[in-house]
Amino acid sequence: MTTPRLRPPRLGPRDVLHVGSAGLRSRPMRVFLSALGIAIGIATMIAVVGVSSSSQAKLLQELDKLGTNMLVVTPGRSMFAGQDTKLPAEAPGMISRIDGVRSVGTTGDVPESVRRSEKIPKEETGGIALKAVKDDLPGVLRARMRSGTWLNDATSRYPSVVLGHVTAERLGISGAGGQVFIGGRYFTVIGILDAVPLAPEIERSALIGWQAAEEQFGFDGHPTAVYERSADDRVEEVRALIARTANPQSPSTVSVTDPSAALQAKAATEGAFSTLLLGLGGIALLVGGVGVANTMIISVLERRHEIGLRRSLGATRGQIRIQFVTESLMLSGLGGLAGIALGAVATAVYARSGDLPWVVPLWAVTGGFASTLVIGSLAGLYPAVRAARLSPTLALQAT
Fold it and tell me: pLDDT grade, residue 213 (50/70/90)?
């Protein structure tokens, strides 16, 4: 009669979780302090990625709202040093006839000072430019009025002015109805523009009607900038034609720029400077992993009697290893979940304070949590192997 071979009982998933969490339940303060290092590292990494993604989402939303189909035509550099170039007075009308151009707005620089009153010295301009405008400039720039109204056919002939919001702040004007001193007379403020991201020069300008500029200040009628909107699928075609159309006699003296390119580049490079902070977060995560490993080694030393008793009752070395690796994984996992929550909250606070959309990429969450599990596995491997190698007899005799 052969004696049946004895086999040690297998641990099911519930048993593994139970024995793995036993050490965590018995030492909550140590668990908290050990998980804190993991949480700080993950929170830093999630917050850095979340803040960068939220800022990028805001820029992309702004680009969608402003559009990427606007080009700005300005006088370029002359081949002869010291010689100024000008756009022909007919340039806006010629540009508007290009196939694919939907709308055109025009400005021209007027060399006059803009002051709050005649008592302020003429030299103290505050960096405010005076520009003559015509056509549907707000429509082309997709600008909104903060208060008041835009110039129309009637008001553009009289001493009426619309201020960019920066100009209004520098002049101390909060709304329509006030007056500013331009050249040698007062102009009535009929409106204030909101922010114009694609044309920041407009924000620092005072805008008067084209006809008023010609009659009041002898403006020569040559545009300084022509803003045009094209069909989305015709931007490159229009760009290729616009210089020759604006100034057929000297197309090389015409400059064509895309103001949305700066926002696109900023959105593309958003987060480029986050690498250093991500590195610091990774270092904090590694330090947290060292803390977990240290905690597990101490746990093995303190629980030698428990290990010896379990071995004497039939637990295998593999089961002891699984117990301590599971404990390390649970410890790191708790820190990872706490870190993800802290990073998400930090991102939400930043987004709320900056009026940004709250974005935490899924890849950052899954990658962060996966990294905690890897750290937990590596941190618990050596203590688990050390625990499994303990002799049951020596472990029970240890004091």
Answer: very high
- Tokens 């099911």 correspond to 12
Q: Which of 51, 227, 63, 240 is nearest to 133 (CA)?
A: 227
Ramachandran angles phi, psi of 110, nearest 5°? -115, 120
3-state class of 288 per DSSP?
helix
Give the C-alpha separation, 134 to 61, whole Å. 29
**pLDDT tens readout for residues 135-191:** 789 989 888 999 999 999 888 888 999 999 999 999 988 888 889 999 889 999 999
Q: Looking at residue 351, what DSSP letter applies?
A: H
The pTM of the whole model exceeds 0.90: no
Whole-angstrom Cα distance, residue 39 to residue 284? 9
Contact 314, 6 (CB under 8 A): no
Q: H-type helices in the chain, by residue range?
A: 13-26, 28-66, 91-96, 137-141, 165-171, 200-203, 210-217, 235-246, 260-269, 275-302, 304-312, 317-353, 362-388, 392-397
For residues 114-124, average pLDDT: 84
Q: What is the pLDDT of residue 281?
A: 66
| Helix, strand, or coil (residue 388) | helix
Task: Residue 323: name the closest of 338, 309, 344, 341 by CA.
Answer: 309
Distance CA 349, CA 51 (A): 10
| Tens of pLDDT, residues 287-314 | 777 777 777 777 776 677 777 777 777 7
Nearest of 263, 151, 250 to residue 200 by alpha carbon? 263
- Whether residue 114 contacts residue 185, with contact meaning beta carbons closer than 8 Å, is answered with no
CB distance 283 to 354 below 8 Å:
no
Q: How far apart are the C-alpha atoms of 73 and 67, rounded to whole Å? A: 17
User: In whole angstroms, what is the distance from residue 36 CA to residue 28 CA?
Assistant: 12
CB count in 10 Å sphere of residue 268: 11
One-character DSSP codes across 319-339? HHHHHHHHHHHHHHHHHHHHH
